[in-house]
Amino acid sequence: MPTIDVSPPLKESQTIYDAFIEKERGSQKTTSTKEPWKPANEYSHLSGVKKAQQNKRKGQQEKKKEVTVTMEGAMMQLERSELETILTKDQATFPDTPSVWLKDLASLINLKLESVQESDPIFSEHPADYPACKLSKSLRSLLMSTLNQCTTETLDLFFEHCVHSMVTDIGKGLSTFGYRIFIQLISQSTPTIPMERLSKHLDLLKTNQNHALRCLSIMWAIGQCGLTDLKCGVKVWLHLMVPMLRVRALSGYAIDYLEKLFIKHEDLRPAYSVIGFRDFFPILDVVFSSRSNLPVSQQRKLIELYPKVKMVAFGDKADCLRNFFPSFLARVGTGSSAALQTELLSCLVTCLSKDIHCFSIWRQMYIKHMKQSSILLEYLLFHWVTLSNTLDKKVLRETTRAFSITNEELAAQGKKEDMEGYEKCVAACTSLLQKLSNSGFPWLLVFLGLVTVVAGIFTLDVYTSQGFKGSKTYRFLEDSGLLDFFIQVWLRIELYSRIVYNWLAENIPYYYAKVCEFCGPYLLLVWSKLKAFWTLLVEATQAQRDWLAIKIPECLNWIDAKVPWLWSSIKHYSSLIWSGIWYYSIWLWEHLVYSLHMAGIWLQENVFTGNLSLENMSKTLSSWLAVMQEYTSALVKWCIGVWSGKNN
Fold first, then answer.
1. What is the largest CA-CA distance in the chain?
2. Which pLDDT does position 646 carry in this prediction?
3. Quick one: pLDDT at residue 310?
4. CA distances to 36, 249, 370, 549, 615 from 245, in Å
5. E strands along 145-241, which residues?
6. CB 366 within 8 A of CB 325
7. Which of 118, 377, 437, 514 would be 428's cystine partner, CB 3.0–4.6 Å?
8. Is the bond into 131 cis (omega within 30 degrees of 0)?
């Protein structure tokens, strides 16, 4: 078959405009070979330092073997005079721009320390204040004096510059020790500066989420404020690191940071109320989540740190627990793990025991959260032995009765079938009311009853026998020998009482006279001196007392005019304080009585057993009385025999 050859496209004919096109292309080639123009500004001198640093790093990367030195060796090469030269030059050139001084110093430190290997962005094998801790005293004083010359706004902007420059340069493989040192110095001297832009730092962290080295560097930089201020450290961990707990590459540092924070600061009171109830529950979900991405070791470490996190969240004010209670109750029984379920119930009991207002919140939530309430009531019943001492039984009894009345109303309205957990609530309320109404064994009433019965029998016996000697009680005491024993005891008591009385009647006047003779003159002198001092004091303060008598009513009138609500507020708060003292005094008395009752039960069950039981002790006492009666009878007979022998 014949083939068809495709001819190339026809060439355009030349026109007079082609000369201008060729000229334009030639000018573009000449301009491309030249260095592009950059606008000059006050920061243009920094590019020379950075460019030299980049060129030097590129030259080092071309070498097969890179020479590295230790931080100590590099710090020895960093001389104060060199930094002072740069600082003096910048202060003369830019006297009103201290940020330029700081940026030049940071760039110079980066250049001097670029030979130090920077493989770990968080310096896990070094002290917490590394690398700033390697600075000599002279260098640290120079840098701190420079920072002290800057305003807070300048430090804030420079801190932001250091963070961004550190993130940028660490991705290029450049040295960032200068930025890190200034970040640490600023964070240690003014911990609140990193807190100013936490939201922006979080956005920067999310932007670099796929670059672990950059993210760890950001977390390390912002977390430096926690070394000196626990409150700032907890805020950084809460707002910056908790969102990163779900990222496997960053969760380890977030947990380690919290652990170091609690080790560094043993007193947690400065951080109270930093973690609010809205911030606490995401942490709770991460700690006890069964679907967590955390490794087992990190999950275990986070669970160990959780009690301190909860302590910081709850704080020392009981009234803040009422904010946690609704969320705790709503989360119970929602298909959570067993560990989370137990923790929620434990937190609910803590809220009820420390904040009595939580009972009223529970009553309001009861109908809509009947299933959760049934679980909480069953938990109280199951752990009643240990929890009964912590809860206010009076308020708990009133709350349970309110629940029972609500259950009856729902049953009368025919709505009980629509309520999940209704039957369990009814059973739990009934059992709990029984436990609350059952009191301990009334030992005091039994004792008083026995004393009353014995006194009544004795009185009736004496009355019917027309005297004590003719009563059965007298004959029983005489036959058992107890009467003679009691008579002997009474005679001995009477004898020794008479001896003591005679001695006192004879010696007290004598010793009283001696004391009066020795101390009388001194006491009279002291009394006269006190009278003279009081007279002098009254005369010396007469003018001041007259002035106070005039000014105090004027002051009170002025206070009434300026602050008319002051006295009513004082009365109101005084009544509140008195009611609180009265309430807690009653509470303390009830718990003391209950503790004594429990101690009696414990002694009865654990101590007074076996040979020490009440039955064995009563038998032993009866046998001892019988033996004593025999010996008493034998003694009486012997005395009678001896007496009759002498008379004969």
1. 180
2. 55
3. 92
4. 46, 9, 34, 69, 65
5. none
6. no
7. 377
8. yes
- Which of helix, strand or coil describes residue 69? strand
Residue type for position 370: M
List Cβ neighbours of 568 (8 Å cut-off, separation of 6 or more).
Answer: none
431-449: pLDDT as tens digits: 888 888 765 555 666 677 7
The residues near 648 (Cβ < 8 Å, ≥ 6 apart) are none
**Quick one: pLDDT band at residue 236, thresholds 50, 70, 90?**
very high
CA distance 329 to 552: 56
Q: Is the dihedral of CA 256, 259, 263, 264 positive or negative?
A: positive
Asked whether the beta carbons of 176 and 170 are under 8 A apart, the reply is yes
pLDDT grade for 48, boundaries at 50, 70 and 90? very low
Q: Which of 111, 169, 109 is nearest to 134 (CA)?
A: 109
Distance CA 436, CA 366 (A): 20
Whether 347 shows a pLDDT value over 80: the answer reads yes
Q: Give me the DSSP letters along 309-334.
A: HHHHHH-S-GGGHHHHHHHHHHHTTS
* Nearest-angstrom CA–CA distance, 425 and 403: 8
**pLDDT tens digits for 74-115?**
888 888 888 889 889 988 888 888 889 899 999 999 888 888
Cα 607 to Cα 601: distance, rounded to the nearest angstrom: 10
Residue 605, CB-side half-sphere exposure with 13 Å CA sphere: 6
CA dist 628 to 267, 480, 492, 622, 625, Å?
65, 9, 19, 10, 5
CB 105 within 8 A of CB 87: yes
* Stated pTM of the model: 0.58
List of residues 6+ apart from 587 with CB closer than 8 A? 392
Angstrom distance (rounded) from CA 38 to CA 137: 40
Q: Which pLDDT tens digit goes with each residue over 182-225?
A: 999 999 888 889 888 888 888 998 888 888 899 999 999 999 99
| Closest to 559 measured CA to CA, from 547, 569, 544 | 569
Instruction: Say how far apart CA 432 and CA 441 lie, in whole Å.
Output: 19
* Alpha-carbon span 287 to 292, nearest angstrom: 8
Alpha carbons 451 and 430: distance in angstroms, whole number = 37
From 364, 361, 363, 372, select the one nearest 421 (Cα to Cα).
372
Query: For residue 1, what pLDDT band results from cuts at 50, 70 and 90?
Result: very low
Under 8 Å between Cβ of 320 and 297 = no
Q: Could you give the angle at the alpha carbon of 599 between the alpha carbons of 593 and 602, nearest 5°?
A: 145
**CA–CA distances in Å: residue 129 to residues 67, 181, 220, 222, 491:** 26, 9, 11, 13, 85
Given a contact cutoff of 8 angstroms between Cβ atoms, the answer to whether 166 and 179 are in contact is yes
Nearest partner of 237 among 225, 124, 247, 166, judged by Cα: 225
CB distance 237 to 223 below 8 Å? yes
By three-state DSSP, how is residue 116 classified?
Answer: strand
Cα 466 to Cα 473: distance, rounded to the nearest angstrom: 13
* Residue 622 C-alpha from the chain's centroid: 58
Task: Tell me what pLDDT residue 233 has.
Answer: 92
Distance of CA 36 to the CA centre of its chain: 61
**In whole angstroms, what is the distance from residue 502 CA to residue 505 CA?**
5
pLDDT bucket at 632, cuts 50 / 70 / 90? confident
Query: Alpha helix locations (H) across 465-613?
Result: 472-480, 482-540, 542-562, 566-602
